[in-house]
Amino acid sequence: MIRIILAQPRGFCAGVIRAIEIVDRSLERAGAPVYVRHEIVHNRHVVDTLRAKGAVFVENLSEVPSGAVTVFSAHGVARTVQAEAEARALSVLDATCPLVSKVHSQGRRYVKAGRTLVLIGHDGHPEVEGTIGQIDAPVYLVGSPEDVAALPIADDTPVAYVTQTTLSVDDTRTVIAALKARFGDIAGPETSDICYATQNRQSAVRALCAQVDILLVVGSPNSSNSNRLREIGVEEGLPSYLVADGGSLDPVWFEDVETVGLTAGASAPEELVQNVIEALGRLHPVVVEQLEGIEEKIEFRLPPALKRLAPRASGKMG
User: What is the DSSP letter of 40?
Assistant: First the structure.
């Protein structure tokens, strides 16, 4: 008998729920196809489900027919992308997570106040690219204390920092400490401005790791927050695996295992968690329980532009 303990909270956050609903509702109102710039969230199952309904995922707006309904992903986009969409008369629905938009606003305020902006994040991540593209000034990207030491900025420069939302307080602590140690005049957001979902899921995994023999994280390989949850398991000394669904399980992992910890990244739906439980149940008898934890009740409003979408008479475009 294997005991499965579920982390709480896990899976979808409010920003992801809002982004998926924007695509769903735009398909209902305007009909297919609806074009989505970049994966709406980093989860293959979610993307494939929306694609089957008529969503078309593109990396560049040049792939979108003029005038088409276009959704920006939850990760946010640069101002140049917004300007291109406007120039091509695209009917835009912005699914940028409100917490990401908040980072954009903070960055612009710091620059307006005369500070040099440092962004703590992962090079190449779409949220990082979008944030840098939202600031009309140079933005310096750092991901480690070593990066801070290498910054080509005078130590007496007034500096400010913002962070990628899929990083937690724990993830950014050493980098922020290095920034504060180097720059005497520095400003940054309160820790309460860190994404609640990222912090809650990481705290839940740390609590979970104290009670299990192995950690499974449901999520996609390109999901930053899902990868970080797996890394926490490794840091806690556990065999830890990132799995897309139940088909990713290796029976060898569960030899001599009594207790399995199970969680999901913020872009992974609960049905995939249940799929993993069912797959593990086919390998061994299981009993499932859930850790006590934070019950998230945050909801984000949908964009008003959704209500203005008109159905297309033909149901086809391009």
Answer: S
